[in-house]
């Protein structure tokens, strides 16, 4: 097995944020609503532009700050900031099968991932990044919009690992180019590491890691070398691995210590451990209740 690592700068884990003078006067409304799990920060910014959010009876503006005692409505419905701020942050690991779309609805009628997930007691699930329709594997979803936003933001350089099966002639020179960097139409890209993982004949498996999530980046890197990707599976994201027992179309809840580690990774303060959940839960498609179900 050959590995082609490249030296890289050491990334220090960000310290949890401390309130600034501006924060003491209130936080940006899109950040507050994202933390409550109403949507991703990008989604909420669009809601503000569309006039769907009001602050103290007035149409909210981008960049407006709010405090816990302010009145906020979304689509005319009041938001209980105090009650929602006490909600536990939850993260699910979903094994996305090929053929599903990472969307809440699809105009072409294709199956979407959110119909396969249990309903959270509060807020809603927010996908942390995307996998294209033909890619399967690990997808994280959370009820904490700010956590999702930071894990997706390029500045945090979150590591992803994929198992990829390629069809074509692979040589040492090609692997070297992929590890050193290839100029694509949207800029330079490369794999942090490439490890041979078996295969027979013209079909070869590799495990690759990278720290970015540009659209179809893994496929485009291999295709730039004249080889075709016949199967692609994400097996790790932000240090969280796809559990071997987790079947395609099923989800598994990350325990509180795992959630705390993800939050610390992107500089968010950890919460107190939840009293109602003491370990991971597995969910199967079609279950829409939120009662714990232990692993088997």
- Helical fraction: 10-25%
**Number of beta-strand segments:** 18
Low confidence ranges:
6-12, 19-23, 273-281, 286-296
User: Biggest sheet, open or closed, and with what strands and sense?
Assistant: 10 strands, mixed
Quick one: overall form? elongated
Radius of gyration: 21 Å
Distance between the termini: 34 Å
Portion in beta strands? 15-25%
The H/E string reads HEHHEEEEEHEEEHEHEEEEHEEEHE
Give average pLDDT, whole number: 83
Number of helices: 8
Class by SSE composition: alpha+beta
Structural account:
- By secondary structure, the chain is α+β, with helices and mostly antiparallel strands.
- The protein is 20% helix and 24% strand.
- It has eight helices and 18 strands.
- The protein has helices at residues 21-24, 29-35, 41-49, 81-85, 145-152, 172-180, 217-223, 256-265; strands spanning 27-28, 53-55, 58-59, 65-66, 72-74, 77-78, 91-96, 126-127, 136-142, 160-167, 182-184, 187-189, 193-196, 203-210, 228-237, 240-241, 251-253, 282-283.
- Strands 7, 8, 9, 10, 13, 14, 15, 16, 17 and 18 form a ten-stranded mixed sheet that branches.
- A hairpin with a 2-residue loop joins β5 (72-74) and β6 (77-78).
- α2 (29-35) packs across α3 and α2 packs across α5.
- The longest helix is centred in the last third of the chain and has 10 residues, at 256-265.
- The chain is elongated, with a radius of gyration of 21 Å.
- The two termini are 34 Å apart.
- The model is unreliable at 6-12, 19-23, 273-281 and 286-296 (pLDDT under 50).
């Amino acid at each position: 097995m050959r590995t082609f690592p490249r030296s890289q700068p050491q990334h220090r884990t960000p310290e949890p944020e401390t309130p600034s003078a501006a924060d003491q006067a209130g936080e940006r409304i899109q950040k507050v609503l994202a933390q409550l799990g109403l949507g991703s920060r990008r989604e909420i910014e669009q809601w503000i532009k569309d006039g769907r959010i009001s602050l103290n009876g007035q149409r909210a503006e981008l960049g407006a700050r709010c405090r816990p005692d302010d009145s906020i409505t979304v689509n005319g419905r009041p938001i209980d900031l105090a009650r929602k701020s006490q909600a536990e942050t939850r993260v699910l690991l979903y094994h996305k099968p090929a053929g599903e779309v990472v969307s809440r609805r699809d105009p072409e009628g294709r199956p979407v991932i959110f119909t396969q997930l249990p309903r959270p007691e509060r807020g809603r699930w927010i996908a942390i990044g995307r996998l294209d329709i033909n890619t399967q594997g690990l997808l994280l979803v959370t009820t904490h919009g700010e956590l999702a936003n930071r894990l997706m933001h390029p500045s945090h350089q979150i590591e992803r690992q994929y198992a990829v099966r390629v069809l074509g002639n692979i040589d040492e020179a090609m692997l070297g180019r992929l590890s050193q960097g290839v100029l694509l139409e949207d800029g330079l890209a490369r794999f942090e590491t490439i490890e041979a993982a078996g295969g027979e004949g013209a079909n070869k498996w590799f495990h690759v890691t990278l720290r970015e999530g540009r659209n179809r980046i893994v496929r485009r890197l291999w295709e730039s070398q004249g080889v075709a990707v016949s199967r692609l599976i994400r097996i790790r994201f932000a240090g969280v691995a796809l559990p071997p027992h987790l079947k395609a179309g099923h989800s598994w809840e990350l325990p509180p210590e795992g959630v705390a580690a993800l939050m610390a990774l992107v500089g968010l303060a950890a919460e107190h451990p939840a009293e109602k959940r003491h370990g991971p839960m597995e969910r199967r498609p079609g279950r829409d209740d939120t009662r714990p179900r232990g692993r088997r």
